[in-house]
TrEMBL record:
<protein>
    <submittedName>
        <fullName>Divalent metal cation transporter</fullName>
    </submittedName>
</protein>
<feature type="transmembrane region" description="Helical">
    <location>
        <begin position="181"/>
        <end position="204"/>
    </location>
</feature>
<feature type="transmembrane region" description="Helical">
    <location>
        <begin position="364"/>
        <end position="387"/>
    </location>
</feature>
<feature type="transmembrane region" description="Helical">
    <location>
        <begin position="75"/>
        <end position="97"/>
    </location>
</feature>
<keyword id="KW-1133">Transmembrane helix</keyword>
<feature type="transmembrane region" description="Helical">
    <location>
        <begin position="329"/>
        <end position="352"/>
    </location>
</feature>
<keyword id="KW-0812">Transmembrane</keyword>
<feature type="transmembrane region" description="Helical">
    <location>
        <begin position="35"/>
        <end position="54"/>
    </location>
</feature>
<feature type="transmembrane region" description="Helical">
    <location>
        <begin position="109"/>
        <end position="132"/>
    </location>
</feature>
<feature type="transmembrane region" description="Helical">
    <location>
        <begin position="144"/>
        <end position="161"/>
    </location>
</feature>
<feature type="transmembrane region" description="Helical">
    <location>
        <begin position="306"/>
        <end position="323"/>
    </location>
</feature>
<feature type="transmembrane region" description="Helical">
    <location>
        <begin position="268"/>
        <end position="294"/>
    </location>
</feature>
<keyword id="KW-0472">Membrane</keyword>
<feature type="transmembrane region" description="Helical">
    <location>
        <begin position="225"/>
        <end position="248"/>
    </location>
</feature>
<dbReference type="Pfam" id="PF01566">
    <property type="entry name" value="Nramp"/>
</dbReference>
<dbReference type="InterPro" id="IPR001046">
    <property type="entry name" value="NRAMP_fam"/>
</dbReference>
Length: 395
């Protein structure tokens, strides 16, 4: 494999993985670990299996069709692509406000500046990347470096926390309890909404497409889930180690508590670095992917898509700086994220069996069956989650 191709595949994998590893990812993992203790390992295992099945289907079909998701959806049913794009962009914008907030909080921990100033500076850094001539290459490298940094720091804290690894392994396969809301939340936070499409669309933009590219696409797809899952597992073990020692996490900022309990003030500063890294890479991934869903709708949008990305980041930043983090919207969109996946995956599975879209390509039966089971399961769990979350918005 050429060095340039290897770099593109790794870049797509890290773009998807770091898009998933945002402020919500850190909070969800620590929150559910405290609630489920070692049994949370089972939730992680199930979510990884679902994540791989969903992403393998979506990335392969994008590559074979040689089109972005919204264009494929419009070929399945005219107008459907616009509906999917609307869901993705609205969800991406809402989550990006949360990502910018996370960058502000990380800056506050590292530099001592206010979250608003930190968010503004972080937004300018993200915009600066897309203003550069080699924006896509720099974006790939930026997400790779920060991805490795997040994992390395989390590994350090995990060892400092001395987690009960044996118990974690046992409960991963024989859990004391199973939490459906935890599963839907993890899957939604890893491959829900815009996230799974970030790497698939990045490969398409880089020219990695067609049936001949499927081995590379498959490898990059699984690698992306692997990177995000490694971070999830290490953070789970770090949190488990802290909880097993009898510490109670601060409900207003559970992940910060983990790092502070495990490694003192140094750990708290590490948390700031991880929070900022997770947030800024998610800002870049959300903006890039959300715009990739609307850029093909008009030649002018395609021509000026870089400025759309910049505008997307600027709006997210200004909303947070002016009115703060809209918690209720984020909660609702979090629940909706679990429903976007079965809709988009269902459309892609239909497309996989339409010769006018994929030509002579034959989608593996096992992937179709695997994907169909995920669509049904995620629809069921998504509805349950919505029924649980919506009343809380009005209570």
């Amino acid at each position: 494999m050429k060095q340039s191709n290897r770099s593109i595949l790794l870049g797509a994998a890290f773009l998807m993985a770091t898009s998933a590893i945002g402020p919500g990812f850190l909070t969800q993992t620590t929150y559910f670990t405290e609630a489920l203790v070692a049994s949370f390992g089972f939730v992680i295992l199930v979510s990884i299996i679902i994540d791989i099945g969903a992403q393998l289907n979506i990335w392969r079909i994008i590559a074979v069709a040689e089109r972005r998701t919204q264009d494929i959806a419009n070929m399945v049913l005219p107008g459907l692509g616009y509906f999917v794009a609307f869901l993705i962009v609205i969800g991406g914008l809402a989550f990006n406000i949360g990502n910018i907030a996370g960058a502000g909080l990380g800056s506050n921990v590292i530099l001592g500046v206010s979250p608003e100033i930190g968010a503004l500076l972080s937004g300018l850094i993200a915009i600066g990347i897309f203003l550069l001539r080699e924006a896509n290459k720099i974006m790939d490298r930026f997400t790779q470096v920060l991805g490795f940094l997040m994992i390395a720091l989390t590994v350090f804290v995990m060892f400092s926390a001395s987690p009960p690894v044996g118990e974690a392994v046992q409960k991963t396969f024989m859990p004391d309890k199973i939490d459906l809301i935890a599963i839907i939340t993890l899957v939604g936070g890893t491959v829900g909404g815009y996230i799974t499409f970030s790497g698939g669309h990045r490969l398409l933009d880089a020219g990695v497409k067609g049936v001949d590219s499927l081995p590379e696409v498959t490898k990059s797809s699984v690698s992306a889930i692997g990177i995000a899952s490694i971070m999830r597992i290490f953070l789970f073990l770090a949190t488990l180690g802290v909880v097993a020692q009898g510490f109670t996490l601060d409900p207003s900022n559970p992940p910060a508590s983990v790092f502070q309990f495990a490694a003192g003030n140094i750990g708290y500063k590490m948390f700031g670095v991880i929070m900022w890294s997770a947030a800024i890479t998610s800002v870049i991934g959300a903006a890039y992917t959300s715009v990739s869903f609307i850029r093909t709708m008009n030649p002018k949008l395609e021509q000026y898509h870089k400025y759309l990305i910049i505008g997307f980041i600027a709006i997210s930043t200004l909303v947070f700086v002016s009115i703060g983090k809209p918690v209720n919207v984020l909660i609702l969109v979090g629940a909706l994220n679990g429903l976007i996946l079965p809709i988009s995956l269902g459309v892609m599975l239909i497309a996989a069996h339409k010769p006018k879209i994929v030509g002579s390509y034959k989608h593996p039966i096992w992937l179709t069956v695997f994907g169909s089971i995920i669509v049904v399961a995620m629809s069921y769990m998504g509805i349950i989650t919505m029924m649980d979350q919506i009343p809380k918005l009005f209570s």
